[in-house]
Sequence to fold (636 residues):
Amino acid sequence: MNDPLSAARTRPLLAGETITRVLPGAVPITALEGVSVSVEGGELVAIAGPSGSGKTTLLAILGGLDRPTSGRVFLEGEEIYGLSRRALTKFRTSRIGFIFQTHNLLASLTARENVELAVRMVCGRAVDPRVTATEALASLDLAKLSHRLPIQLSLGEQQRVAVARAIAIKPRVLIADEPTASLDGTNGERVLEALHAATRTGCAVILASHDDRCLRSATRVLHLLDGRLEAGGS
Amino acid sequence: MPSLVGVAVRNIARTPRRSATISLAVVGGCAALVFMMGMNAGLSQMTISNSVGLMLGAVQIDSATGARTIPVKPALPALDGVEGVKGAAPRLHLPALLGNTGAALVVGIDAAREARASKFPRLVTRGSLPAPGGELHAAIGSSLASQLGVKVGDAVPVSWLDGMNRVRRSELVVTGIVRTGSDELDQKLVFVPLSTARRWIGASEGDAGAIVVSAADNNDSNGLAARIRGRLDPAVYRVRTWGQVSPQLKGMVSYQRGSINIVLAVIYLVVGAGVAAIQLMGILERTREFGVLSSIGFTPGRVIALVAVESLMIGVLAVIIGLALGAALVTLVAHAGGFDVRIAAGGEGLEGLIGMDPYLRPIVTLRAMAFAAGLVGPVLILGGVLPALRAARMTAMDALRR
Fold:
């Protein structure tokens, strides 16, 4: 007998089924081949693997930023690539936060405005973007730097602003691509602590990293090699 | 938190060099278009002005029934107060033979009225036009004077057909030499008092062959003709513009305009392509930024709106400055006397321009301003929006990979 509530309880928060991604070109490259992943809320899942193994591509597909050539991705039971482009954008931005390898802050906006803009885009008038942004920045010890432009921040500070921007929208899933790359020990620890703090609110965090600190602190580690998930990685 | 407009302002301010480059391209493009179109308008004006200032007039009034003469009296006073009339002069033409050189064109004139209606009084190189009282006085074309070997004060035999088609002969005393710059006219023109011409063909006192009207604005000849028609009896008077009197001249002006429009079209393309290319480069550099915007929830429409707002902000100010700069340049050149086309012609045909105004004075026209703004503005916006549309349509990941 099918029990919808039971199904919802057992359904993973985010699941990718047999994802294949072929990058087009004169010689097409298979970046991912038949990868299946599922992540529960509150988990911090690390994806490890050498450069070119498909980590970033997998994160982008799981995060709704890049369409798979074949396979499906479910977020809260919704097949995200079955949505229209506009609906996907709305669905993605309301549920998924991104932290990129390079910080990708908008250069013309201050730290606070970068966070505010994201909050405003996602939450609309439901919250006060200024207050939310200020709280998110304060949680990463950035309150005093909130008026600075990205160019006036160190790399570590920029990355923390990117984390603040991602967590400010209170996402269900946080996707981070090499979030501690190029950060020193202290800054790296602060970023990791922020990600763990997010998991404590029920958010699922998926990150790709070479950094041992990230891998050690993950709930699970998945190993990718040449676009395939290695068996038994955890 | 800045709004879309606020973000656009920040983006413009953040990249001053890029913004300045795009602005300069727009300012330069607009100014160049306004100036070139001003030159084109000035050239047309110069051609028309040089042509209608001699025999044609901007508007000509003659008989509606094909009669050789019209009564001057009701028509000439009726022209007083008509908007755009600069001057009007009655004339009476008749073919004649002067000396033994062949055909001449005798033109009976009122020298006082010609001063406001044509350039002839200013083209007298020696002596003067025949005064109303001088019945057998004449001013003749310079080439005709050379052929006859006559100078001011000499007498020259003349023969003509009177109103009954009988050959009549007399002798004219040369009071002036006229040099129009047109060989055709200088070889045949013979100016005599209007009263003399009337008497020679047996026309009534107060009649003339036509009334030549000069206009304050030669481009308004159609409007002027319409206003004059409203004042005159259409059963008696036929009112025609210079273009109707001389379709050949109108065709030549149209041909000239068409030729220059081809050159202008090339300039439009160069200006348009230049503005679009600079804008395109600026936008393509920002593909990654659009990827970031997309990742935080900007829809393609919002990204395009941002680029459009930025383009509008740069464009509106730059177009206004460009139009003002172009108009200022045109005004400056016109006030300085214009370009001497004789210099541009490399000295060739200088003698042929004696009677003509050789200065090309560019004109500021609303059409040029509207055209420049209408071309550069949309090119700027499309040059930004189209590549932004392409970038916004990429997946966010594709954009971030750039």
